[in-house]
Amino acid sequence: MGARSGAPRGSEPASAVTAGTAPVLEVEDLRVRLRTPRGPADVVNGLSYTVGPGETVAVVGESGSGKSVSVLALLGLLPARVATVTGRAVLQGEDLLTMKPERLRQVRGPGAGMVFQDPMTSLNPVLTVGRQLVEGIRAHGDVSKEAARSRAADLLGEVGLPDPKGALDRYPHELSGGMRQRVVIAIALSNSPALLIADEATTALDVTVQAQIIDLIENLQADRGTGVIWITHDLGVVAGIADRVLVMYGGRCVEDGTVDDVLERPAHPYTRGLLGALPDLARPAVDGVVPDLATVPGTPPAPTDLPEGCVFWPRCPVRGDARCEHEQPPLVQIQGLDRHFGPSGLPHRAATWCTEPTSDTGLPASGTGSTALGGDR
Amino acid sequence: MSSDVLVSVRGLEVHFPVRGEGIRKKGAGVLRAVDGVDLDILRGETLGLVGESGCGKSTLGNAVLRLIPSTGGSVHFAGTDVTSVGGKGLRELRRRAGMVFQDPFASLDPRRTVAQTVSEPLEVHGLRSGRRERAARVGELLELVGLDPAVAGRYPHEFSGGQRQRVGIARALAGEPDFLVCDEAIASLDVSVQAQVLNLLRRLQKQLGLTLLFISHDLSAVRHISDRIAVMYLGRIVEIGPASAVGSDPQMPYTQALLSAVPLPHPALERERKRIVLRGDVPSPSAVPSGCRFRTRCPYVFEPCDDVDPALQPAGAAGQQAACHLHGVVGTPVERTPEGVTAEP
Ligand SMILES: Nc1ncnc2c1ncn2[C@@H]1O[C@H](COP(=O)(O)OP(=O)(O)OP(=O)(O)O)[C@@H](O)[C@H]1O
Ligand code: SF4
Ligand SMILES: [Mg+2]
């Protein structure tokens, strides 16, 4: 990724927010309930966040935490038969959740582009790359076929495909995984959307290719001021790309803040647990001994069977407050200590009964390196 | 062969025939999944094997365990040539060398209880005679991997991914093996569960004196669990050495690029870090470049790289080796070395 120009980074104020520019996307109290054979599942439970122009918001969490569903719901991509979506999601002034389906389809291309983990979910295997790009470009603008084709070739060049003109006539299966993902990005960007949603977009790729794709998205974002929602389970990727981070667990946001605050000064026991569980290349052996990883015991809860009280309490190593098992902690600004307001002055919030510091030392040690989370059992 | 070498691989090749594609290219018709691997795995060590998708990691692991046939070279296990043993010799190898697979969902039979799954190797190898002895052993094995022996009667779908992986490990341990190949054993698990399984493997390795070949594309996990790391590129080991040396001071340009691309969970560090972004894609293993197989993407490529295939040679720390002419153009396998190559780095 090397040079990172343009997009605001964690340690600087997220310009979109502080400079008063209108956010690209404003999500308020998003809730999604899915009908499942095992009964209703509350997959997303009250998510609120904004994405400014040129800003990258990372949504992290383990499988089943509701990350993907939360963005599919925004774009009306969940079947209405099984999904009940409530809340507000305002994209450039219009609420996506109350929009008519036709309008939503119109808005989707120029408003929001999507890149999924498997490029083949977005590509049609029997159509050439060129045809798919041209269709996307012409669906949202009055462009001649020739103009669309030359724009398609330009886009493929921009995303770094060698021989972009020739690539127009290739079929998806003739390309490598990394090349396919570049094509998907080209399609997602073909209408210069204000918002790009990347859902585990680099998870299936090798790290070297992942680095190329991240580089690409960062450069395009810097050029165009695109707001990005980056969904991933990989905290390393988050550290490299995000301005702000939202940690999801059991369909709730349990912590959010600037990337520096959340990764360097995690407040929620779950965030601390996740960071401690990560093998870390930058934290090598001490006297030749690599310490065991801290682990979070147990597994994430099923959305059909969320615990009462704090969603994390059954796995929480520091639970102890009388409220943990009965009362859901609200997502609130972490109070009391200056160092918990990031250098940016942007809020750092957590939903836990256990981190309200009484004194400077009243805080449990920061997540990295903590071994308080139990052994391998 | 030194006595502390448990698995010794020499010149191992696994070539697959391929149809069509690139008829005019040199080496057409052959996919070189494993293409001349020399590797010693020491008794009691965890050797990590990393490399990009398709570089041949799984094929190498499978060939070492004789799950697939090799087309050249040899594999010695505990001093015995097992390259083409059959019958009793192969059964003994199956008992002493096992596999933990990536997908705990796919590798367990959904219709069999945990007890049936774990005790099968006991029956196959005739390790416990009576049913009661086998049940007792199954209980021990489940405890060993951190599961409650009371779950023996349950079916795989009643378990989480991490628990299923523990069942897979218990099954692999049933024959009291010396050697386990773990092929992407944590790849489909959540981060918090990955840590549990990594810790478990480390504990078992120490407790039972196991030798592990830990195959993964996750360099951070490999660095964490391994004593030594081997890096594979297009069917060949291109660097090997102590985990600390390979992990923090790699000597082969490919390893350097690979490591620099691993994202680290430290925002400040990530902002400073320089990435070596490699050009292009990995070439197809059915069209391996001449000379150094990394030369089409290597930022340092120079004259000898086009023609001379670099052999592993000492580079960097003690015990570290890299296959790269930057460390001097020396001893490539005799039949591959063009005569009279003189090149100054
Ligand atoms: N039975 C087979 N027939 C033909 N080609 C094969 C066969 N098995 C593997 N290959 C090819 O051999 C090469 C090496 O594959 P292998 O699965 O060993 O790679 P890998 O390093 O394990 O990759 P990954 O990280 O994706 O698991 C690939 O090009 C693969 O397509
Ligand atoms: S031998 Fe040459 S091409 Fe290969 S890694 Fe070394 S410098 Fe690069
Ligand atoms: Mg593999």
UniProtKB/TrEMBL annotation, chain A:
One of its GO terms (cellular component) is plasma membrane. GO terms for molecular function: ATP binding; ATP hydrolysis activity. GO terms for biological process: peptide transport. Keywords: ATP-binding, Cell membrane, Membrane, Nucleotide-binding, Transport. It is found in: Cell membrane. The keyword Transferase does not apply. Residues 1-20, 355-377 are annotated as: Disordered. Residues 355-371 have a biased composition (Polar residues). Residues 25-275 form the ABC transporter domain. It holds the Pfam family oligo_HPY. It is a peripheral membrane protein. Its main location: membrane. Belongs to the ABC transporter superfamily. This is ABC transporter ATP-binding protein. It comes from Blastococcus saxobsidens. The lineage of its organism: Bacteria, Bacillati, Actinomycetota, Actinomycetes, Geodermatophilales.
UniProtKB/TrEMBL annotation, chain B:
Keywords: ATP-binding, Nucleotide-binding, Transport. Residues 18-259 form the ABC transporter domain. Signal peptide: none annotated. Belongs to the ABC transporter superfamily. InterPro entries: AAA+_ATPase, ABC_transp_ATP-bind, ABC_transporter-like_ATP-bd, ABC_transporter-like_CS, Oligopep_ABC_C, P-loop_NTPase. GO terms for biological process: peptide transport; transmembrane transport. It comes from Blastococcus saxobsidens. This is ABC transporter ATP-binding protein. Gene3D superfamilies: P-loop containing nucleotide triphosphate hydrolases. The keyword ATP-binding applies. It comes from the Bacteria. GO terms for molecular function: ATP binding; ATP hydrolysis activity. The keyword Transit peptide does not apply. PANTHER family: D,D-DIPEPTIDE TRANSPORT ATP-BINDING PROTEIN DDPF-RELATED, TRANSPORT ATP-BINDING PROTEIN.
